[in-house]
Design a protein that fits this description.
alpha/beta, ten-stranded mixed beta sheet, two-stranded antiparallel ribbon, 2 domains, about 40% helix, Rossmann fold
């Protein structure tokens, strides 16, 4: 689990929410937090930029914040490798859904290519201190793929360390979701199958993921599009984080789970932890638990 968390900071109004989520994670996970501002243009006064960010976000002098220049996505990946960071926290500059979600090119690159799990903080996320007390949980979406099983292991570890309950969710295909993914192939229960057999397969799918998570979990199967189902379950279950793989079982260019990851990272009400394929190694088998 995280010893170092890297957080990308820009000069937008959304930066406060991103840094707030990163600080909460670092505090709860007892991890070192490093903030970095990446400019894709030469900075005449890098120290001034850092000072301005510190002042605007009310960051103390003890907070590790520095700046660098270059292509933001690549520089963040380079910094993750340099620090051997375990989590990367970034913002999402959502511009609304067009088919699959369209959001910042930096975020899109990172959730598919970063060497560690990426926490994307959408603009509508509320600060932790504004959330109502209750029985908060982590919601993990699965589709039967090995990618999803790895994400379930990550979700189980995070839930254990954060002291949150775990909910494993599968979105059962319905007419709407099948139309959205024409030609997709998946191990998820087929819409055309017998209802009883389809339900049994779906229940087996979520139980397998729950077993892999290594933590007691609630399992939920509901019909609908993955992002709609995950968001609805998270609203009901006081979900503080959503966890999902960046890829899933599909021959489409944008896999079902991958599309859900992009959609949620653009528009969710809570941070979304996305597990890129390159970062699956530590969570890829039972030994990772």
């Amino acid at each position: 689990m995280p010893e170092t968390i890297l957080c990308g900071v820009d000069e937008s109004d959304a930066a406060a929410g991103v840094v707030g989520a990163a600080c909460w994670l670092a505090d709860q996970l007892e991890a070192r937090l490093v903030l970095i501002h990446v400019s894709d243009e030469p900075m005449r006064d890098a120290d001034g930029v850092v000072a301005s960010i510190r002042d605007r976000l009310a960051l103390g002098s003890g907070v590790d914040l520095h700046s660098t220049e270059g292509a933001p996505a690549q520089r963040l990946i380079d910094e993750v490798k340099h620090l051997d960071a375990d989590l990367l926290v970034v913002g999402s500059r959502g511009r609304g859904p067009i088919g699959s979600a369209v959001f910042g090119s930096v975020s899109r690159t990172l959730v598919t290519g970063a060497p560690c799990p990426v926490v994307v903080v959408p603009p509508r996320v509320k600060p932790v201190e504004e959330l109502s007390p209750g029985d908060p949980s982590i919601i993990c979406g699965v589709d039967g793929s090995l990618h999803a099983i790895a994400a379930a292991r990550l979700a189980g570890l995070l839930a254990e360390r954060l002291g949150l309950s775990l909910v494993i969710v599968h979105a059962l295909p319905d007419v709407k979701s099948v139309v959205s993914y024409p030609g997709a192939r998946s191990t998820a229960p087929p819409l055309s199958g017998q209802p009883d057999a389809r339900d049994r397969l779906a229940e087996e799918l979520v139980r397998t993921a729950a077993d892999a998570a290594g933590k007691e979990a609630t399992t939920i199967v509901e019909p609908g599009l993955p992002w709609d189902v995950l968001e609805a379950v998270a609203d009901r279950q006081d979900g503080r984080l959503l966890v999902i793989a960046a890829r899933g079982q599909s021959d489409l260019r944008a896999a079902v789970l991958g599309s859900a990851a992009h959609q949620l990272a653009s528009s969710s009400n809570r941070p979304v932890v996305v597990l890129p394929e390159e970062a699956e190694g530590p969570f890829g088998d039972a030994e990772a638990n």
